[in-house]
Amino acid sequence: MTQDARDQEHSGSDQSTSGQASQDPTGSEQPNGADRSEVGGNEDLATAFLRETEVVEEAVEDGKKIRRKGIYLLPNLFTTSALFAGFFAVVAGINGEFTSAAVAIFIAMVLDGLDGRVARMTNTQSEFGAEYDSLADMISFGMAPALVAFTWILQDIGKTGWVVAFLYVACAALRLARFNVQIGSVDKKWFIGLPSPSAAALVAASVWTFHSFDADAFGFKLLMLVVVAAAGVLMVSNIRYYSFKDLDFKKPVPFVVLLAIVLAFVLISVEPSVMLLLLFGTYVTSGPVLAAMRKAKPKS
User: Fold this and answer.
1) 3-state class of 26 per DSSP?
2) d(CA 223, CA 225)
3) Could you tell me which of 82, 100, 191 has the C-alpha nearest to residue 137?
4) Which residue, among 235, 243, 105, has the nearest Cα to 173 in the 3D structure?
5) CATH number of the domain encompassing residue 102
6) Which helix (DSSP H) or strand (DSSP E) does residue 95 occupy?
7) What was the pLDDT predicted at 243?
8) At 71, phi and psi to the nearest 5?
9) What is residue 51's predicted lDDT score, i.e. its pLDDT?
10) Sequence-separated (6 or more) residues with CB below 8 Å from residue 44
11) What is the domain count for the chain?
12) Most exposed of 53, 122, 156, 226 (fewest Cβ within 10 Å)?
């Protein structure tokens, strides 16, 4: 055998031995050290990501303080839906679809009313949910109404228009911050200041109504200026508004109450924008009217 042939035979024997060494006794291939390190690294990275992004908060259950991990899904789904509706209202307003924007704000208002009730009914309240709800309210009832009103008609007034729109946004933020720190220290029967969902409903209903009637005269521009500014100022005022939180829906009511609710739905369906404007306009003005009546009433 020549030297070249012996060298080739030796080389082939080394390759065969190396190939057998990479298999286990069952014949299946095993990953080498680099592959095992890479797999283990990915697992460690995923575990670290889950650990570092986990929500941990202190809660009181059965009179004891506990550290609870994770969030409750059901109420936060309603909050996320309300946030999406508010964002959709902003996009629709930028695209000139003001009716859709106004309807989206009302949808966000309904969803915002449901998330808290669902959390209480299912006993899934949490600090995370409260903070998330407040941030979603800032988008849906602070930014969205102001931007929709501005892109529709306030921008035609110039600097005054965007200053008033910013005033509304700032007042909404202050209203939500004050509400968060006053929880548990005020009478639940009353809101201190106009609730931000009601202020947003007033602005959205005004845009919906006036836009439907092609009301673009200068007088309507001034009217929207006053509506947006007044809604913002009322949110940070000390005027009390009835909260409806003392209503017990579990108790029986007279038949006429259900009849009145059905009649209200019929009236709203005839001309939704006008009826909603009248409804929330009445609620917004009820605060100052009742405050004036209390001051005018002689003290006994």
Assistant:
1) coil
2) 5
3) 82
4) 235
5) 1.20.120.1760
6) none
7) 86
8) -130, 160
9) 66
10) none
11) 1
12) 53
8 A C-beta contact, residue 171 and residue 232: yes
User: Tokens in use for 219?
Assistant: 């007088």
What is the spatial distance between Cα 240 and Cα 293, in angstroms, rounded to a whole number? 12
Residue 89: its pLDDT value, please? 97
Q: Is there a contact between 115 and 78 (Cβ–Cβ < 8 Å)?
A: yes
| CA neighbours closer than 13 Å in the CB half-sphere of residue 37 | 3
Looking at residue 48, what is its pLDDT? 73
Q: What is the DSSP code (8-state) at residue 65?
A: E
Q: pLDDT tens, 99-134?
A: 999 999 999 999 998 988 888 888 888 888 889 999
Q: Residue ranges of the chain with pLDDT lower than 70?
A: 1-43, 49-52, 58-64, 66-68, 183-186, 215, 248-249, 299-300
35 to each of 22, 32, 42, 52, 69, how far by Cα in Å?
Answer: 13, 5, 11, 26, 33
Phi, psi of 242 (to 5 degrees): -65, 135
Strands, E, within 110-245: which ranges? Answer: 190-192, 240-242
H or E segment to which residue 214 belongs: none
On whether residue 54 sits in a domain, the answer given is no
Residue 298 DSSP class: P
- Parallel, antiparallel, or unpaired: how do β-strands 240-242 and 190-192 relate? antiparallel
Note the pLDDT tens digit of each residue in 62-73: 666 766 677 788
pLDDT reported for residue 197: 95
Alpha-carbon distances, residue 133 vs 106, 114, 178, 193 (angstroms): 16, 11, 14, 19
Indicate the helix (H) or strand (E) that contains 219.
Answer: helix 218-235
pLDDT at residue 189 in the model: 81
